[in-house]
Amino acid sequence: MNGVDKQLLDIRDLTVELRDRRGPILPVDSVSFSLERGKTLAIVGESGSGKSMLCRAILGLVPSHGSILFNGHDTGKLSASEMNRIRGREIGVVLQNPLSSLNPVMTIASQIMEPMRCHLGLGARESREKALALMGAVGIPHPQERLSCYPHQLSGGMRQRVAIAIALACDPQLLIADEPTTALDVTVQSEILGLLSRLQQERNMSLILVSHDLGVVAGVADEIAVMYAGRIVELGPAGAIFERMRMRYTQALFDAIPRIDDPPHRRLPNIPDQPPDFAALPPGCRFAPRCASAGEICRNKYPPLVADGDERHSYACWFPCELKEAGR
Amino acid sequence: MVSSIPGLGRVVPMASPDLKKGFTFYAACGWLALVVLCALGAGLWPLPFTLDQIDSEHLAAWPGGEHLLGTDAMGRDVLVRLLFGSRVSLIVGSCAPLLGLGVGLLLGMPAAWCSGWSERLIMTCTDVILAFPALIFLLVFASILGPSLITITLGLGLLLSPRFIRVVRANTARFRKSEFVLAARISGAGEGSILLKEVLPNIMGPLLAYSLVVTGYVIVVEGALAFLGLSVPSPAPSWGGMIAAGRDVLEEAPHVAIIPMATMFLTVLAVNLLGDRLRGRYERS
């Protein structure tokens, strides 16, 4: 009982299959992970590695198979209206670009109040008061004056705070933040990350933080899942991953983080070439064509996810990084 | 600390988009207000003549004197008929586009939202109606229902619907993939409520601008149909009917036709100016 209760989200072999002109493609391929209540999971990977598609699959917005247990319910067995009740009420989502994710012709107040009126059935006065409190909680100064503002009257950071307030309107148990800081500038980025992490602790929510920047998630994540070409290639507690990363792709992402103590004008190491085309995936390890350490077996056989000592840390690599290699 | 710096962290009221409202804009508004006032108050004002009162001593009299705008060939006061006739133009000019807009929203939004057989059905019907000769449609329509204000409004409204369906569909489709729609879907809103609460407010502006342009067009078309006897049957006054009646005495008393013609011209011009203003505003944003 206790063990079941601790897990908020448990995903097994989740696969999303889309039809392309050239045939079926799998932007998310046999992904499994679980998330405890009150914890933060970061999903990291390049553009096009299937991170956003994974989030949409969790929300039931794209056709998928595999099992998603949310709060003990198999979401695959829920009806469309039951799923609508979960979206927005139990799972809140913050999207990447706060300029386009807010409706340009609706006031801030009505957009924050909308989910409360729709899901919780609150009246105008109640939801207005709650919206004010939420705007305060997400750090919008002078909320009273901004209630009747339109999105274009606010700055990017403020808009993202509004988007967070909307996502939190019904006190969700899970917040999915899909690259919430990508469209913002660097100083605002850290503010928003700090805010998300603070709200997550205050409200004891679980948080799924999607990012393409390993550096962004380093400070806030409890667990990290690295995705490449639709599959999870390394998964484990943040500490374990940063201490002893095994998968070559994780290492490459890590090397691409700029350091404050780097000499000026140092060229950042980059990962050569592009991520593979989903319609023409290599038969072996999907990272092999771009990997400096790839051998014969990498090109022919996909490496299984294996545990690294600690059972919770696993990786998929035939030639994992030696421990002394990891970390600089 | 921050809020002690004036203007920082506080909401600075935004200036409304500066629309240079020149003389033409105010003139257009003024003229339309005058026409609406005349139409509403036509029955209330103490006019020296009634609608169908025939002054046999002044047939086709020139403006001035007892009859301010003269009389027509039957000796009826032009001003009185002009005032009452404005009702027909305004009712047809406002109700037919509204009917078209209603049908357009009802069918165009779902057509843009769900691709599949329902979209194909709606768009095929639209194309068929668009290709059908309008005049023949109205002739048949009027011969079935009999010419009346309701017939002409309904007929024109139905003829306008396909155009509105196309405009609504094009405007709605722009928002199909927009992120705030995705955000609404993610927060558990059903498709109907997304269309009503998220998309509709976004497309209302351009649609109103289009409706105004159509209104001008409809007033002219009503005039033309009155000329053909398809609008309100005589002796009820309408601007188009007055122009038609003035044709017989065009040489000796041109004012009988020219006065309603000029009134209609100015009204349509004013409506179009407003429509252009509104359209310019939405195209800019």
Q: Main attributes?
A:
heterodimer, A: 328 residues, alpha/beta, 8-stranded mixed sheet, 4-stranded antiparallel sheet, 12 helices, 12 strands, globular, B: 285 residues, mainly alpha, 67% helix, disordered N terminus
Quick structural overview:
Chain A is of the alpha/beta class.
Which whole number gives the mean pLDDT of chain B? 83
- Give the spatial strand order of the biggest sheet of chain A: 6-7-8-3-9-10-12-11
The run of helices and strands of chain A is HEEEHEEHEHHHHEHEHEEHHHEE
Our count of helices of chain A gives 12
Which residues of chain A sit in consecutive blocks of at least 5 with pLDDT less than 50? none
- The percentage helix of chain B is 55-70%
Profile the largest sheet of chain A: 8 strands, mixed
Shape of chain A: globular
Structural class of chain B: mainly alpha
Distance between the ends of chain B = 36 Å
The biggest sheet of chain B, with number of strands, parallel, antiparallel or mixed sense and barrel status, is: none
Structural class of chain A: alpha/beta
Would you write up a description of this structure?
Helix content of chain A is 32%, strand content 24%. Chain A is α/β, with parallel strands linked by helices and 328 residues long. In chain A, helix 4 crosses helix 5, helix 5 (124-137) crosses helix 7 and helix 7 packs parallel to helix 8. The longest helix of chain A has 18 residues, at 186-203. The radius of gyration of chain A is 21 Å and the shape is globular. Chain B is mostly helical and 285 residues long. Chain B has 9 helices and no strands. Chain B has helices at residues 23-41, 78-113, 117-131, 134-145, 149-173, 179-186, 191-227, 239-246, 255-284. The longest helix of chain B is centred in the C-terminal third of the chain and has 37 residues, at 191-227.
